[in-house]
Amino acid sequence: MSFGDPNNPYGPPQGQQQGYGYPQQPQQPGYGYPAAPPVQQSYGMGAPMTAMPGNVSAARVLLWVIVGFQVIGVAIFAYAGVVIKKAKDDSSISLPSTLRDYQPGEMWAFAVLALAWLVWAAVLASRFNTGGNGLRVTALVFGILTAVIAVFPFTFAGIFHLVLGILIACFVGGSNGKAWFNRPRY
């Protein structure tokens, strides 16, 4: 059998008329290997990210909100330290019952700790554009520690810190946070 033989089952049909014989089927591309998928710029990650995802940006904003709360906390602790010191030196000044049990040094220690927390949050928030996975892990630890520490003095300000810490940890620890901090930088 040759290729031009009309009885050849492997060759193209010869001279069939439309509507006669077997129904016409759409032609498929030639034989061989299937077409390869389109080539991506970065392997497995899709196109490089240029804009920060919304929840990662929200985590950065929440860090700046914590910085604002810490500024207020530093001012309150420092003022309380000064007032307690004056009340200890002068017996005519009466202290509120909530401050009578504290020493001035304790209030100054709280002010220093609040200042350290403020600096840590500010450094994290300012490095979100350029930081890598290490910054992501550090921000995750910051959010978790903020939430855990906020539970102990369960106050009105503690509730805000609890919620903000949980949200920061969730936003940074999610898939968008992972993609943002692991993105390729050229």
List keywords for this structure.
186 residues; mainly alpha; 5 helices; transmembrane; membrane
Describe this structure in words.
The chain is mostly helical and about 190 residues long. It has a domain at about 55-180. It is about 55% helix and about 0% strand. The protein is built from five helices and no strands. The mean pLDDT is about 80.
Unreliable sequence segments: none
Beta content? under 5%
The SSE order reads: HHHHH
Report the C-alpha radius of gyration, rounded: 34 Å
> Which structural class is indicated by helix and strand composition?
mainly alpha
Distance between the termini: 62 Å
Largest sheet, in brief, is: none
Q: Can you give the helix content as a percent range?
A: 55-70%
Give the count of helical stretches: 5
Short description:
The chain has 186 residues and is mostly helical. It contains five helices and no strands. Helix 1 (54-89) runs antiparallel to helix 2, helix 1 (54-89) runs antiparallel to helix 4 (156-173) and helix 3 (133-151) packs antiparallel against helix 4 (156-173).
